[in-house]
Amino acid sequence: MRIAIDAMGGDHAPAIVVEGALAAAKEWADAELLLVGDSAKIEALLTERPSNLRVIHASEIIEAEDEPVRAVRRKKDASMVVAGRLVKEGEADAMISAGNTGALMTTGLLVVGRVPGIERPALAPMIPTLDGRGVLALDLGANMDSSPENLLQYAIMGSIYRSKVHGMDRPRVGLLNIGTEAMKGNELMKAAYPLLEQAPIHFVGNVESRDILHAEYDVIVCDGFAGNIMLKTLEGTALAIFSALKTELTRTTLTKLAAAVLKPGLSAFKEMFDYTEHGAAPLLGLTGLVLKSHGSSDAKAIKNAVRQARTALQNDLVGAIATEIKNGK
Protein backbone atom coordinates (compact mmCIF):
# COMPACT_ATOMS: atom_id res chain seq x y z
CA MET A 1 0.00 0.00 0.00
CA ARG A 2 1.18 3.52 -0.84
CA ILE A 3 0.42 6.44 1.46
CA ALA A 4 1.15 10.01 0.38
CA ILE A 5 1.96 12.43 3.20
CA ASP A 6 1.79 16.20 2.78
CA ALA A 7 5.18 17.00 4.31
CA MET A 8 4.61 20.76 4.23
CA GLY A 9 1.22 20.82 6.03
CA GLY A 10 0.85 21.64 9.72
CA ASP A 11 2.25 23.99 12.34
CA HIS A 12 5.54 22.13 12.67
CA ALA A 13 6.14 21.01 9.09
CA PRO A 14 8.24 19.66 7.59
CA ALA A 15 10.44 18.54 10.52
CA ILE A 16 7.73 16.85 12.61
CA VAL A 17 6.07 15.28 9.56
CA VAL A 18 9.36 13.78 8.39
CA GLU A 19 10.11 12.48 11.89
CA GLY A 20 6.70 10.81 12.11
CA ALA A 21 7.00 9.36 8.61
CA LEU A 22 10.42 7.88 9.41
CA ALA A 23 9.02 6.21 12.53
CA ALA A 24 6.09 4.83 10.55
CA ALA A 25 8.31 3.56 7.72
CA LYS A 26 10.43 1.61 10.20
CA GLU A 27 7.35 0.24 11.98
CA TRP A 28 5.41 -0.94 8.92
CA ALA A 29 7.50 -2.34 6.07
CA ASP A 30 4.35 -3.13 4.03
CA ALA A 31 3.54 0.59 3.63
CA GLU A 32 5.37 2.68 1.04
CA LEU A 33 5.36 6.27 2.27
CA LEU A 34 5.53 9.12 -0.24
CA LEU A 35 6.69 12.38 1.38
CA VAL A 36 5.37 15.19 -0.80
CA GLY A 37 6.89 18.66 -0.59
CA ASP A 38 10.06 20.71 -0.98
CA SER A 39 12.57 17.94 -1.71
CA ALA A 40 15.59 19.94 -0.55
CA LYS A 41 14.06 20.64 2.86
CA ILE A 42 12.79 17.07 3.25
CA GLU A 43 16.09 15.47 2.23
CA ALA A 44 17.96 17.63 4.74
CA LEU A 45 15.78 16.20 7.53
CA LEU A 46 16.12 12.54 6.58
CA THR A 47 18.49 11.16 9.17
CA GLU A 48 18.12 7.75 7.54
CA ARG A 49 16.49 6.42 4.37
CA PRO A 50 14.23 3.36 4.76
CA SER A 51 13.66 1.51 1.48
CA ASN A 52 9.89 2.07 1.79
CA LEU A 53 10.12 5.87 1.89
CA ARG A 54 10.25 8.13 -1.18
CA VAL A 55 10.34 11.89 -1.65
CA ILE A 56 8.16 13.52 -4.31
CA HIS A 57 8.93 17.17 -5.03
CA ALA A 58 6.23 19.83 -4.87
CA SER A 59 7.27 23.46 -5.28
CA GLU A 60 4.34 25.21 -3.57
CA ILE A 61 2.69 25.26 -0.14
CA ILE A 62 -0.91 26.02 0.84
CA GLU A 63 -0.67 28.26 3.89
CA ALA A 64 -3.08 28.29 6.84
CA GLU A 65 -4.39 31.73 5.86
CA ASP A 66 -4.99 30.87 2.17
CA GLU A 67 -8.56 30.87 0.88
CA PRO A 68 -9.19 27.15 0.26
CA VAL A 69 -10.81 27.03 -3.18
CA ARG A 70 -8.56 29.70 -4.69
CA ALA A 71 -5.44 28.06 -3.25
CA VAL A 72 -6.27 24.59 -4.58
CA ARG A 73 -7.12 25.94 -8.03
CA ARG A 74 -4.12 28.25 -8.35
CA LYS A 75 -1.41 26.31 -6.55
CA LYS A 76 -1.36 23.26 -8.79
CA ASP A 77 2.04 22.18 -7.48
CA ALA A 78 1.22 22.59 -3.79
CA SER A 79 2.20 19.58 -1.66
CA MET A 80 -1.41 18.96 -0.60
CA VAL A 81 -2.73 19.13 -4.16
CA VAL A 82 0.05 16.89 -5.50
CA ALA A 83 -0.70 14.31 -2.77
CA GLY A 84 -4.39 14.41 -3.73
CA ARG A 85 -3.51 13.97 -7.39
CA LEU A 86 -1.41 10.91 -6.56
CA VAL A 87 -4.52 9.36 -4.97
CA LYS A 88 -6.73 10.37 -7.88
CA GLU A 89 -4.33 8.88 -10.45
CA GLY A 90 -3.86 5.64 -8.53
CA GLU A 91 -0.22 6.30 -7.64
CA ALA A 92 -1.13 6.39 -3.93
CA ASP A 93 -3.87 4.58 -2.03
CA ALA A 94 -4.31 7.23 0.66
CA MET A 95 -3.12 10.68 1.67
CA ILE A 96 -2.50 12.38 5.01
CA SER A 97 -2.23 16.12 5.69
CA ALA A 98 -2.04 18.32 8.79
CA GLY A 99 -2.54 21.43 6.66
CA ASN A 100 -5.39 23.85 5.99
CA THR A 101 -8.65 21.95 6.69
CA GLY A 102 -10.71 23.88 4.15
CA ALA A 103 -8.08 23.35 1.47
CA LEU A 104 -7.95 19.63 2.24
CA MET A 105 -11.73 19.42 1.93
CA THR A 106 -11.50 21.25 -1.39
CA THR A 107 -8.69 18.95 -2.54
CA GLY A 108 -10.88 15.99 -1.65
CA LEU A 109 -13.79 17.33 -3.66
CA LEU A 110 -12.01 18.84 -6.67
CA VAL A 111 -8.98 16.57 -6.98
CA VAL A 112 -9.78 13.19 -5.41
CA GLY A 113 -13.54 13.23 -6.08
CA ARG A 114 -16.68 12.01 -4.30
CA VAL A 115 -18.07 8.51 -4.11
CA PRO A 116 -21.05 8.33 -6.54
CA GLY A 117 -24.21 8.97 -4.55
CA ILE A 118 -22.49 10.88 -1.72
CA GLU A 119 -23.72 14.44 -1.65
CA ARG A 120 -21.19 15.81 0.85
CA PRO A 121 -18.12 14.18 2.39
CA ALA A 122 -17.89 14.47 6.16
CA LEU A 123 -15.02 15.18 8.54
CA ALA A 124 -15.08 12.44 11.18
CA PRO A 125 -12.66 12.82 14.11
CA MET A 126 -12.64 10.63 17.19
CA ILE A 127 -13.77 12.22 20.45
CA PRO A 128 -12.18 10.63 23.55
CA THR A 129 -14.51 8.93 26.03
CA LEU A 130 -14.04 7.85 29.63
CA ASP A 131 -13.65 4.18 28.70
CA GLY A 132 -10.85 4.95 26.23
CA ARG A 133 -12.74 3.62 23.19
CA GLY A 134 -13.76 7.01 21.85
CA VAL A 135 -16.76 8.00 19.76
CA LEU A 136 -16.64 8.85 16.04
CA ALA A 137 -18.45 12.12 15.36
CA LEU A 138 -19.46 13.43 11.93
CA ASP A 139 -19.73 15.94 10.49
CA LEU A 140 -17.56 18.21 12.65
CA GLY A 141 -16.88 21.08 10.32
CA ALA A 142 -16.69 20.13 6.65
CA ASN A 143 -20.30 21.23 5.97
CA MET A 144 -21.97 24.00 7.94
CA ASP A 145 -25.42 23.16 6.61
CA SER A 146 -26.75 19.64 6.10
CA SER A 147 -29.97 18.04 4.90
CA PRO A 148 -31.69 15.04 6.53
CA GLU A 149 -30.33 12.91 3.67
CA ASN A 150 -26.81 14.17 4.41
CA LEU A 151 -27.17 13.08 8.04
CA LEU A 152 -28.37 9.67 6.88
CA GLN A 153 -25.25 9.26 4.73
CA TYR A 154 -23.03 10.41 7.62
CA ALA A 155 -24.60 7.75 9.83
CA ILE A 156 -24.03 4.99 7.29
CA MET A 157 -20.43 6.05 6.60
CA GLY A 158 -19.64 6.41 10.31
CA SER A 159 -21.07 3.00 11.08
CA ILE A 160 -19.01 1.40 8.30
CA TYR A 161 -15.87 3.16 9.52
CA ARG A 162 -16.21 1.84 13.06
CA SER A 163 -16.93 -1.64 11.74
CA LYS A 164 -14.05 -1.74 9.26
CA VAL A 165 -11.38 0.23 11.13
CA HIS A 166 -12.25 -0.54 14.76
CA GLY A 167 -13.75 -4.01 14.37
CA MET A 168 -17.16 -3.25 15.92
CA ASP A 169 -20.00 -5.63 15.05
CA ARG A 170 -22.94 -3.27 15.62
CA PRO A 171 -21.76 0.29 16.23
CA ARG A 172 -24.34 2.29 18.20
CA VAL A 173 -25.34 5.39 16.25
CA GLY A 174 -26.81 8.44 17.98
CA LEU A 175 -28.20 11.71 16.60
CA LEU A 176 -26.91 14.83 18.40
CA ASN A 177 -29.91 16.72 19.72
CA ILE A 178 -31.20 18.86 22.59
CA GLY A 179 -33.14 15.97 24.15
CA THR A 180 -33.49 12.23 23.87
CA GLU A 181 -37.17 12.15 22.86
CA ALA A 182 -37.83 11.25 19.22
CA MET A 183 -39.58 14.51 18.32
CA LYS A 184 -37.10 16.86 19.97
CA GLY A 185 -35.01 19.39 18.07
CA ASN A 186 -35.29 21.61 15.02
CA GLU A 187 -36.80 20.64 11.68
CA LEU A 188 -33.54 19.07 10.49
CA MET A 189 -33.36 16.71 13.45
CA LYS A 190 -37.04 15.83 13.30
CA ALA A 191 -36.75 14.96 9.62
CA ALA A 192 -33.50 12.99 10.06
CA TYR A 193 -34.74 10.81 12.94
CA PRO A 194 -37.11 8.55 10.93
CA LEU A 195 -34.54 8.20 8.15
CA LEU A 196 -31.99 6.90 10.65
CA GLU A 197 -34.58 4.56 12.16
CA GLN A 198 -35.05 2.91 8.76
CA ALA A 199 -31.36 2.85 7.81
CA PRO A 200 -29.22 -0.36 7.81
CA ILE A 201 -27.46 0.74 11.02
CA HIS A 202 -27.86 0.21 14.77
CA PHE A 203 -29.59 3.52 15.49
CA VAL A 204 -30.19 4.08 19.21
CA GLY A 205 -31.90 7.47 19.12
CA ASN A 206 -31.07 11.04 20.09
CA VAL A 207 -28.07 11.90 22.23
CA GLU A 208 -27.38 15.00 24.29
CA SER A 209 -23.87 16.43 24.22
CA ARG A 210 -23.48 16.00 27.99
CA ASP A 211 -23.61 12.21 27.53
CA ILE A 212 -20.98 11.87 24.81
CA LEU A 213 -17.98 11.32 27.09
CA HIS A 214 -19.76 8.48 28.89
CA ALA A 215 -19.29 6.12 25.93
CA GLU A 216 -22.93 5.18 25.44
CA TYR A 217 -22.58 5.64 21.66
CA ASP A 218 -20.00 4.65 19.03
CA VAL A 219 -21.02 7.12 16.31
CA ILE A 220 -22.52 10.59 16.74
CA VAL A 221 -24.23 12.24 13.76
CA CYS A 222 -24.69 16.01 13.46
CA ASP A 223 -24.42 18.91 11.03
CA GLY A 224 -21.02 20.58 10.78
CA PHE A 225 -22.09 23.79 12.54
CA ALA A 226 -23.39 22.14 15.71
CA GLY A 227 -20.67 19.49 15.59
CA ASN A 228 -17.83 21.97 15.40
CA ILE A 229 -19.25 23.98 18.30
CA MET A 230 -19.52 20.77 20.33
CA LEU A 231 -15.93 19.79 19.51
CA LYS A 232 -14.47 23.21 20.35
CA THR A 233 -16.46 23.31 23.60
CA LEU A 234 -15.11 19.91 24.65
CA GLU A 235 -11.56 20.90 23.73
CA GLY A 236 -11.83 24.19 25.60
CA THR A 237 -13.32 22.53 28.66
CA ALA A 238 -10.56 19.91 28.77
CA LEU A 239 -7.85 22.59 28.50
CA ALA A 240 -9.51 24.65 31.24
CA ILE A 241 -9.74 21.65 33.58
CA PHE A 242 -6.09 20.67 33.09
CA SER A 243 -4.99 24.29 33.56
CA ALA A 244 -7.05 24.67 36.76
CA LEU A 245 -5.69 21.38 38.14
CA LYS A 246 -2.12 22.47 37.47
CA THR A 247 -2.71 25.76 39.27
CA GLU A 248 -4.30 24.14 42.31
CA LEU A 249 -1.79 21.30 42.59
CA THR A 250 1.18 23.67 42.56
CA ARG A 251 -0.29 26.28 44.92
CA THR A 252 1.31 25.10 48.19
CA THR A 253 3.89 22.62 49.45
CA LEU A 254 1.09 20.33 50.61
CA THR A 255 -0.68 20.34 47.23
CA LYS A 256 2.65 19.70 45.49
CA LEU A 257 3.13 16.61 47.63
CA ALA A 258 -0.41 15.52 46.79
CA ALA A 259 0.34 16.10 43.10
CA ALA A 260 3.34 13.79 43.31
CA VAL A 261 1.10 11.03 44.66
CA LEU A 262 -1.60 11.68 42.05
CA LYS A 263 0.77 12.12 39.09
CA PRO A 264 0.42 8.58 37.61
CA GLY A 265 -3.37 8.76 37.64
CA LEU A 266 -3.46 12.32 36.32
CA SER A 267 -1.04 11.41 33.52
CA ALA A 268 -3.24 8.47 32.51
CA PHE A 269 -6.31 10.73 32.56
CA LYS A 270 -4.59 13.32 30.39
CA GLU A 271 -3.40 10.66 27.94
CA MET A 272 -7.00 9.47 27.58
CA PHE A 273 -7.84 12.85 26.00
CA ASP A 274 -4.69 13.09 23.87
CA TYR A 275 -5.59 13.64 20.19
CA THR A 276 -2.22 12.24 19.08
CA GLU A 277 -3.38 8.75 20.03
CA HIS A 278 -6.10 8.87 17.36
CA GLY A 279 -3.81 10.21 14.65
CA ALA A 280 -6.18 11.79 12.14
CA ALA A 281 -9.79 12.37 11.11
CA PRO A 282 -10.93 10.76 7.85
CA LEU A 283 -12.85 12.67 5.21
CA LEU A 284 -15.50 10.05 4.53
CA GLY A 285 -17.31 9.91 1.20
CA LEU A 286 -14.38 10.39 -1.18
CA THR A 287 -13.19 7.93 -3.84
CA GLY A 288 -9.81 7.74 -2.13
CA LEU A 289 -8.78 7.64 1.52
CA VAL A 290 -8.01 11.15 2.82
CA LEU A 291 -7.02 11.77 6.44
CA LYS A 292 -6.76 15.13 8.23
CA SER A 293 -4.24 15.34 11.06
CA HIS A 294 -4.43 18.06 13.72
CA GLY A 295 -2.56 21.21 12.70
CA SER A 296 -0.34 20.98 15.78
CA SER A 297 0.34 17.27 15.32
CA ASP A 298 3.62 15.91 16.66
CA ALA A 299 5.58 12.99 15.22
CA LYS A 300 3.53 10.50 17.25
CA ALA A 301 0.30 11.80 15.70
CA ILE A 302 1.72 11.52 12.18
CA LYS A 303 2.85 7.96 12.85
CA ASN A 304 -0.59 7.07 14.24
CA ALA A 305 -2.23 8.61 11.17
CA VAL A 306 -0.21 6.17 9.03
CA ARG A 307 -1.37 3.31 11.28
CA GLN A 308 -4.94 4.47 10.83
CA ALA A 309 -4.54 4.66 7.03
CA ARG A 310 -3.07 1.13 6.93
CA THR A 311 -6.00 -0.30 8.84
CA ALA A 312 -8.57 1.47 6.65
CA LEU A 313 -6.85 0.28 3.47
CA GLN A 314 -6.54 -3.29 4.73
CA ASN A 315 -10.29 -3.33 5.38
CA ASP A 316 -11.27 -1.59 2.11
CA LEU A 317 -13.07 1.25 3.87
CA VAL A 318 -13.65 3.32 0.72
CA GLY A 319 -14.95 0.31 -1.22
CA ALA A 320 -17.31 -0.65 1.60
CA ILE A 321 -18.79 2.85 1.73
CA ALA A 322 -19.20 2.98 -2.06
CA THR A 323 -20.93 -0.43 -2.10
CA GLU A 324 -23.31 0.46 0.74
CA ILE A 325 -24.28 3.78 -0.81
CA LYS A 326 -24.80 2.15 -4.24
CA ASN A 327 -26.95 -0.64 -2.81
CA GLY A 328 -28.98 1.82 -0.78
CA LYS A 329 -30.04 3.87 -3.77
Describe how the helices and strands are arranged:
Elements: E1 2-6, H1 15-27, E2 32-37, H2 39-45, E3 53-57, H3 68-74, H4 79-88, E4 94-97, H5 101-112, E5 122-123, E6 126-127, E7 135-138, H6 148-166, E8 172-176, H7 187-198, E9 202-207, E10 219-221, H8 224-249, H9 253-272, E11 281-284, E12 289-292, H10 299-314, H11 317-328
Parallel strand pairs: 1-2, 1-4, 2-3, 4-12, 7-10, 8-9, 8-10
Antiparallel strand pairs: 5-11, 6-7, 11-12
Structure in words:
Pathway: Lipid metabolism; phospholipid metabolism. It is found in: Cytoplasm. This is Phosphate acyltransferase. One of its GO terms (molecular function) is phosphate:acyl-[acyl carrier protein] acyltransferase activity. The structure is a single chain. This protein has 329 residues and is of the alpha/beta class. It folds into 2 domains: 1-123 and 278-329, Isopropylmalate Dehydrogenase; 126-275, Isopropylmalate Dehydrogenase (3-Layer(aba) Sandwich). It is built from 11 helices and 12 strands. The strands form 2 sheets. It has a 7-stranded mixed β-sheet with strand order 3-2-1-4-12-11-5, sandwiched between helices. A 5-stranded mixed β-sheet has the order 6-7-10-8-9, sandwiched between helices. α1 crosses α10 (299-314), α4 (79-88) runs parallel beside α5 and α6 crosses α7 (187-198). The longest helix has 26 residues, at 224-249. The radius of gyration is 20 Å and the shape is globular. The chain starts with a strand and ends with a helix.
